[in-house]
UniProtKB/TrEMBL annotation:
It comes from Roseitalea porphyridii. One of its GO terms (molecular function) is methylmalonate-semialdehyde dehydrogenase (acylating, NAD) activity. SUPFAM superfamilies: ALDH-like. InterPro entries: Ald_DH/histidinol_DH, Ald_DH_C, Ald_DH_CS_CYS, Ald_DH_N, Aldehyde_DH_dom, MeMal-semiAld_DH. Its EC number is 1.2.1.27. The lineage of its organism: Bacteria, Pseudomonadati, Pseudomonadota, Alphaproteobacteria, Hyphomicrobiales. Keywords: NAD, Oxidoreductase. It is an enzyme of class 1 (oxidoreductase). This is methylmalonate-semialdehyde dehydrogenase (CoA acylating).
């Protein structure tokens, strides 16, 4: 059995801990590879390589750093198909969806190539008589990234291109369920001329994460994953004096107003609820039609579309939805559907019994798309993040009731409103207490030059990912005030200096 290893100091490394975990092909439901799980010694080795590479990399002119990333960007476009295939093989998402993820990741590299402009400092002449002042943004050192299974390339790409462009070095700990894409990214960066040690990948589980969180040379921690882990990583990293951004789970609601284009809303919900089998932190998992008439009109449009959904492996280009990530997760999602039924939901379409009958994929972790109606806020299917192809309908009587429902939830990652009324749209985007808002856009993932991040239990820390927030997170500011001896006053001052 092949064992997927690490990438440290410019080369692939076998695991040395003796601990491994099987890596599944979720479409087949079987595993013929495993991943090495790093222990503390291996993590320490990767951090040491990154620490050693940092002084020279941080002093490399920003333009030269950017040119390496520019080559990397070109190479990513050329090899996007290959990367997408690697993603689909371990994650299960369709090829088109994996290509979309790669594209969104490349956009962050495109943004990072322009970092020299953003790293320009500020200069003030004559802040006092013959005294000048300037501020610069400097790198911090070794940055760590800990990423989830659902975007094996895009989420790491939210982090390291910006970190590297700012002059930091990086240690990435990808999800143990999708270990290969990160290694491809590391090898391709090296091919583009990135010096050894600047970007490293350690595979592993909680033990590797703990080693990173407790390592004194790790200066920043960027995490994306479930809320319980995000909260604990935020707490530990803060206690250890590190800068931290930790993005957590989600439960995203789409409000459908009576004046919405109902066909547009139904199409948007299909992609947003069932794309990537609902395993997206920006998936719409709750539809909130305002009035019963809107709910009925929406469900009438959704049901035939759900029944016609093409569920299959990434190897079939006509597949619209792939499998779930593991057998255990499939059982968990099916369990939520059963629980919803027990709690009083109406099961409009039940995807639990879907069976993939094409040869070779019979044991894949596939589930059919599911639609639950008459969900209420006291039900677990509303409260919890299910992270599967399950769309819940919560009927509300007015706009205010819909907004109140969204505000009642602990998660606040993304949301959307479907309406043709400009006043409603403006009011919603101003008032809603959620980090990312779509107006007739179901998955409002900000572009690379904006920043990604939710509110409340969906995000811990002060900075969002990429865009200017990313530049701020991966740099620290230094301000120098300068006076030359010819203009210096000779007297000693004991009061706080005032320059004006
Ligand atoms: P996860 O929290 O199980 O794992 C994320 C990472 O943390 C992995 O690298 C994993 O190895 C590590 N990890 C897991 N348990 C840990 C522990 N106890 N201590 C330390 N490290 C641990 O998440 P997942 O199942 O891989 O991903 C799905 C979750 O990620 C969902 O909740 C989804 O909403 C969330 N997510 C959020 C965003 C966002 O931007 N907010 C984006 C993508 C995914």
């Amino acid at each position: 059995m092949t064992v997927i290893g690490h990438f440290v100091d410019g080369s692939m490394r076998d695991g040395a801990s003796g601990r491994t975990l099987p890596v599944f092909n979720p479409a087949v439901g079987a595993s013929d590879t495993s991943v090495a799980l790093a222990d503390k010694v291996e993590v320490d080795g990767a951090v040491a390589a990154a620490r050693q590479a940092w002084p020279e990399w941080s002093k490399t002119p920003p333009l030269r750093r950017a040119r390496i990333l520019d080559r990397f960007k070109t190479l990513l476009w050329e090899r996007a198909d290959e990367l997408a295939e690697t993603i689909s093989a371990e994650h299960g998402k369709t090829h088109a969806d994996a290509l979309g993820e790669v594209t969104r990741g490349i956009e962050v590299v495109e943004f990072a190539v322009g970092a020299p402009h953003l790293l320009k400092g500020e200069f003030s002449e004559n802040v006092g008589s013959d005294v000048d002042s300037h501020s610069i943004r400097q790198s911090l050192g070794v940055c760590a990234g800990i990423t989830p299974f659902n975007f094996p390339a895009m989420v790491p790409l939210w982090m390291f291109p910006v970190a590297l462009a700012c002059g930091n070095t990086f240690v990435l700990k990808p999800s143990e369920r999708v270990p290969s894409p990160a290694l491809k990214l590391a090898a391709w960066l090296a091919e583009c001329g990135l010096p050894d040690g600047v970007f490293n990948v350690v595979q592993g589980d909680r033990r590797a994460v703990d080693a990173l969180l407790n390592h004194p040379d790790v200066r920043t921690v960027s995490f994306v994953g479930s809320t319980a882990v995000a909260e604990s990583i935020h707490r530990t990293a803060m206690a250890n004096g590190k800068r931290v951004q930790a993005l957590g789970g989600a439960k995203n609601h789409a409000v459908i107003m009576p004046d919405a284009d109902m066909d547009m809303a139904a199409d948007a919900l299909m992609g947003a609820a069932f794309g990537s089998a609902g395993e997206r932190c920006m998936a719409i998992s709750v539809a909130v039609p305002v009035t019963d008439a809107v709910a009925d009109a929406l469900i009438e449009r959704l049901v035939p579309k759900i029944k016609a959904l093409k569920i299959g492996p990434a190897s079939d280009p006509s597949s619209e939805m792939g499998p779930l990530i593991t057998g255990a997760h499939l059982d968990r999602v099916r369990g939520y559907v059963g629980r919803g039924e027990q709690e009083g939901a109406r099961l409009v379409v039940d995807g639990r019994d879907f069976r993939q009958d094409r040869q070779g994929y019979e044991n894949g972790f596939f589930m059919g798309a599911t639609l639950l109606d008459h969900i209420t806020p006291d039900m677990d299917v509303w409260k919890d993040e299910i992270f599967g192809p399950v769309l819940s309908v919560v009927r509300r009587r007015s706009y205010d009731e819909a907004v109140e429902l969204i505000h009642r939830h602990s998660y606040a990652n993304g949301t959307a409103v479907f309406t043709s009324n400009g006043d409603t749209a403006r009011r919603f985007s101003q008032d809603i207490e959620v980090g990312m808002v779509g107006v007739n856009v179901p998955i409002p993932v900000p572009m690379a030059f904006h920043s990604f991040g939710g509110w409340k239990a969906s995000n811990f820390g002060d900075h969002n990912m990429h865009g200017m927030e990313g530049i701020r997170f991966y740099t620290r500011m230094k301000t120098t005030t300068t006076r030359w001896p010819t203009s210096a006053a000779n007297d000693v001052q004991f009061a706080i200096p005032t320059l004006g």
